[in-house]
Amino acid sequence: MRFALSFAAGRVGLYGVLRCLGIGRGDEVLLQAPTHIVVANAIRYTGARPVYVDIDLATYNMDVAQAAERVTTRTRAIVLQHTFGIPADVDATLELAERHGLPVIEDCVHSLGARSRGRLLGSLGRAAFFSTEETKTISTTMGGMVTTNDPELAASLRGFQAACPWPSASLAARYLLKLVTWHVLTEPHLHRYSRATYDLLGNRHPLPLPTVKEELLGLRPSRYEERLGNGQAAIGLQQLRQLDANLAHRRRIAEAYAELLAERGLRGPSVPEDAEAAFVRYPVWVENRPAVERALAPLAVPGTWFTSVLEEAVSPRHGDYEDGSCPRAELAASHLYNLPTHPRVRREDAVALVDALAAIEHGRPT
Q1: Among 119-128, 150-159, 186-195, where is mean pLDDT lowest?
Q2: Which tens digit of pLDDT belongs to each residue from 141-154?
Q3: CA dihedral in degrees (268, 272, 273, 279; nearest 10)?
Q4: Cα angle at 83 between 45 and 329, to 5 degrees?
Q5: Which of 61, 215, 220, 322 shows the greatest Cβ crowding within 10 Å of its Cβ?
Q6: How far is CA 102 from CA 46, 72, 96, 97, in A?
């Protein structure tokens, strides 16, 4: 991509893109459910209304046919999420967008390094935003990027970025401290003893939370628009140099999960034949998620992404979601569990996780 700009979080980058595209009060933006409350908030903070589109239950990505039905005269953009790093139907979305004169903004929070028909995700729409939050493919504790090939949009984004303050010295130090703490306390074999400590520290000073209380309620926090700190940027650049190895490992672990799950009659995701997923996590459809969570918690960081149509929201209504509007997304939110793929997960860890999961799903005690 010709232009890339960093921000304190991917959500800030999305908000900046929407503002620079002139999206505001009275407008609508299509996005899928399930998603994270902060994505919906970035739309809502501009004054626009998020319009939710249901998913395909094979890939957990946007149902483009339904998106076409939800376009109105007020629709101004489509946010296309590549869930768990599985490429969405980019070509169908771009065709829909072209018919209606809409920009496509790729949500690449999960999908750094993924490809669709040989093309890198994040390079296919008008703009894209990425996250380097602590649980993503690379981590600067908090942070995000926006990419675009549009020089006018890039110039506007530079102006938006210039107006964003730098993080304070104390906040920058706390981010770096949290990065070290996360790395130590989430080591797979230490995790069972340390997760409670990490959660306790994460709810207290000095470790900053990734999503503050106001955001969970759909409210705009006082500290929202902000730049990425230089210390965090240096760490991100170092990790980018290892990105190919990182992605290769995640794909090997994903292949192991796919093989192990198939052997045990369990259901993993479908990846389009012409796509190469990044798998920031590996989603599994389970029937008894509470029991699975209890059984696997001692073995790995629990995979609780998308236990709601709006992840982490106190209530989906805080993101203007109407109950029943995306029934497949609501169903998925009751059945999805996701397994770790990060570079410290080994094949023997994958075997132990799938064995424990299969025992619960097939009604055998662990």
Answers
A1: 186-195
A2: 999 999 999 999 99
A3: -60
A4: 80
A5: 215
A6: 17, 11, 8, 5
Pairing of strands 75-81, 104-107: parallel
Q: Are the beta carbons of 88 and 59 closer than 8 angstroms?
A: yes
Token readout for 10 is 């991917």
Q: How many CA atoms lie within 13 A of 184 on its CB side?
A: 8
pLDDT at position 18, please? 98
Half-sphere exposure of residue 67: CA atoms within 13 angstroms, side-chain side = 33
pLDDT value of residue 201 = 65
Q: Answer yes or no: are the C-beta atoms of 275 and 87 closer than 8 Å.
A: yes
pLDDT tens for 78-107 read: 999 999 999 999 999 999 999 999 999 999
The answer to whether the beta carbons of residues 125 and 116 sit under 8 Å apart is no
Whether a cis peptide bond, with omega within 30° of 0, leads into 316 is no
Classify residue 238 by its DSSP letter: H
Query: Is the CA virtual torsion 131, 132, 136, 138 positive or negative?
Result: positive
| One-letter amino acid of 55 | I
Contact between 339 and 300 under an 8 Å Cβ cutoff? The reply is yes
Give pLDDT tens digits for 173-211: 888 888 887 777 766 666 666 666 666 666 665 678 889
216 contacts 313 by C-beta, under 8 angstroms = yes
Alpha carbons 293 and 4: distance in angstroms, whole number: 38
The Cβ of residue 56 has, within 10 Å, a number of other Cβ atoms equal to 18
62: phi then psi, degrees, rounded to nearest 5: -55, 135
